[in-house]
Amino acid sequence: MALRLCKKCRKTVLSKAVQCPYCGNPMEQHEEEIICKINNVDYDFTEIYKKMMAIDKNNLEWSHSEEMLEIIWEVYDLTQVRGTSSFCIEAVETGMLPSEYNAMTVEEWNEQVKKSTQNHVIIKCPYCGSIDVKKIFFGGFAQKQWHCKKCRSDF
């Protein structure tokens, strides 16, 4: 089953729904649906595709136009996928939507950023455990590389 946005409350509902289960707004029914599978979930792009094809590509600034920004936000609200601007611009340029599109969701991207920040090595003083250390640029006889600002030891 494909998903689409309710025009009134902007929540995702099934494309076959007669009315929105959240606000009761009647949903328009279409003879032919334009479905795009994004991250293995079917989405109804019928209304969005009509808006995409209505954009005047003769205008040099069409990719930054108000209509295009509205389409990008509508796709983001529907799919919650990161990088919707490149997806929308490519669809408008080619004139067709891909049947399948795999992208990272915002939650997955935030989780990946969190994991990458956890992988950074934090240097601690072996004597006092402080992280208030600085790199020594010239090594002495024992080739000490770090200096603790708290206990003033070199290690």
Structure explained in plain terms:
- By secondary structure, this protein is of the alpha+beta class.
- It folds into two domains: 3-106, no CATH class; 119-155, no CATH class.
- Helices cover 30% and strands 14% of the residues.
- It has helices spanning 46-53, 66-79, 84-94, 106-118, and strands at residues 3-5, 12-14, 35-38, 41-44, 100-101, 133-135, 146-148.
- A three-stranded mixed β-sheet has the order 4-3-5. A two-stranded antiparallel ribbon has the order 1-2.
- Helix 2 (66-79) packs across helix 3 (84-94).
- The radius of gyration is 26 Å and the shape is elongated.
- The chain starts with a strand and ends in a 7-residue tail after the last strand.
